[in-house]
Amino acid sequence: MVPVRIAVVSPFIDKRHGTERRIAEWIARLPLEYEIHIYSQRVEDVDLARMKWHRTPQIPGPHLVNFLWWLAANHIWRWWDAHFRGLAFDLVYTAGTNCWDADLISVHIVFAEFVRMAAPELSLRGNPVRFWPRLIHRKLYYALVIFLERRMYTNPKTGLILIAKKTAADLKRHYGIEGPLPVVYIGLDHTIFNRELRLRNRPEVRKQFGFGDDTFALVLVGNDWKKKGLVALIEALALLRDLPLVLVVAGQDDSTPYLKRIQELGLEGKVTFQPSRPDVQYYYAAADVYVGPSLEDTFAQPPTEAMGCGLPVITTATNGTAEIMTDGVDGMVLQDPNDVAGLAGRIRWLYEHPEERERMAEQAAITAGQYTWDRNGVEMRAIFAEALERKGRKAVHNEA
Q: Are residue 363 and residue 380 in the same domain, yes or no?
């Protein structure tokens, strides 16, 4: 029997980044009878014994240049394999705007909505001249991605997979896309993200950070700090000077714009920037509260991980994670990500009500416990099977 061949197209795959973590977990749970081919510049944390990696080279230079190269290269590599190696694919799957010919696209962010929400932060007029080159580069990249979103997401032959219901509203607002679309909420590995492990590691991790017993630690994890709402969070800290607060910001981004504002507000020593690390639960162990006031996030992974670890979470209605939360029960949901006073008020309330904070933390762990990668696997296998049947290819129904 001719195998069912799946092409998975992603610039990189690992388990340290949200979107790429989902891809790694999802494809690992596709039926074993599927022949999976990965087209990517870098692959980590994937069992390549059952999948074939077709390495596409990365070129040096700005992100925009590399993305344009990647967009062309993954098509060229697959064209070559189809015409000279006989690798005809039954389905092409990607996350976001990586290829024109995808049969299935999981939408992890609608950039048109993000740019709408972040317009003030992206304004040249509102930033020092020395930041303009970076901003111009970012604006050009966003413009390209929005152009691709409009053409790829509206292709009637392409099936879209959502990771939050809010994405449906964003797609309708910007691209006129309607109709029921499958939603696959995030999965978690609960052997890693659990309350017992966090409490066990908490004393040692806080000792390494130098936090005293009275230190109330907030944590934010992410790689695009503008999008994650760091500006509003820093402004909120300025309204909480009377509290023994410290903020840990972990991820990959340039801290320079934020350090200047921290200095202006007299918050030196209140904010520490830390690098990404594979054991991100290390940062959750140090924290009392996770704070992620996202400007726009289809479904941010760190807040859910923090919930799994039994942390109370503050996020925003503009983050799809809020869809699995009940405001005031297993977390707090801020309606306006730019509401600095409202954000500060929620942080203060959690600080001043330790018993309620503990109750919320316990309920957060219960809520997060419902969401697993195996649950995602069942959902994704059904979506892939339906897409194959639409193309007249018999789906594989055996379990992975």
A: no
* Full domain range(s) for residue 44: 4-187+372-390
Give the HSE-up count for residue 140: Cα atoms under 13 Å, Cβ half-sphere. Answer: 12
Q: In angstroms, rounded to a whole number, what is the distance separating the alpha carbons of residues 4 and 30?
A: 11
In 28-124, the DSSP E strands lie at 34-40, 42-43, 51-55, 91-95, 104-107
| Joined tokens for residue 381 | 């296998």
* Tens of pLDDT, residues 279-332: 999 999 999 999 999 988 888 889 999 999 999 999 999 899 999 999 999 999
Burial class for 72, CB neighbours closer than 10 Å (0-12, 13-18, 19+): exposed
* pLDDT digits 0-9 by tens, 120-174: 778 888 788 888 898 999 999 999 999 999 999 999 999 999 999 999 999 999 9
* Own/partner long-range contacts of 76-85 (Cβ < 8 Å, ≥24 apart): 77/39, 78/7, 78/9, 78/39, 78/54, 81/37, 81/54
Q: Let me know: does 31 contact 394? Beta carbons within 8 Å.
A: no
CB 338 within 8 A of CB 328: no
What's the total number of domains in the chain?
Answer: 2
Please give the single-letter amino acid code of residue 334. Answer: L
